[in-house]
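This entry is passed on directly below:
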Amino acid sequence: MVSFADPERLSVIFDSPQREEWQKSRQIIARLGLTPTMRIADVGAGTGYFSRQFAALLPKGRVYAIDSEPNMVAHMRRRFADEQIGNIEVRLSEPDHPALPAELDWVFLANVYRFISQRRAFLAQIYAGMPSGARLMLVDLATVHAAPSPDQVMDELKAVGFELRELDMHTCPTHYLLQARKP
C-alpha cells in the first residue's frame, strides 16, 4: 500500500515534469471544457498537481483541493501560499466523506478511486454533495491487473444515481477517463 504521509517525497513523483508524458494531463484537463468562472473540487488532490493547473484556467473561478491526509493538506497550503495562488481553497476531508463545497461544476478524482475502501458509500457522499447538473470525471488505471475495472466503476456510479456520459480508454496510455453527471 502506498503511504501518502510524506508529501515532499511524493512531490518528486507526482509533480514531475515527466508526468505529462505518462498521464497526458493537459489532454485530460482539456476534456473538462473548463471556463474561467467554473468551480471544481479536486478530491484526493495529493500534492496539488491538478489543482494548480485548474487554478491557472479558472482566474474568476474556484478550485477546492481536497485531501484526507493531513500532511498533504499542509503541503498544499504551503505550496499555494508560496506560489501566491489565490483561487484555491485547500480542505481536509475524512477518508469516507469528501467535504465538497455547496456550489460546484465539476468533481475530479485522479488516481484516487482504487484506494477508496468503501467506494459506493463514497460515491453516494459525492452524489449527495453535488448540485444537479454538476459533472464528475474519474481518472484511474486501466491496466489488466487494475481494480476496480472501468466496467465495475460504471456500475458503481449508476448504482448511486449518476448518468454516465463518456468512457475514454484512449487519451492516456495506462489510464481511463470516465465522465458522469448528476441529473
Summary: The radius of gyration is 15 Å. The chain has one domain: 28-182. The longest helix spans residues 70-82.
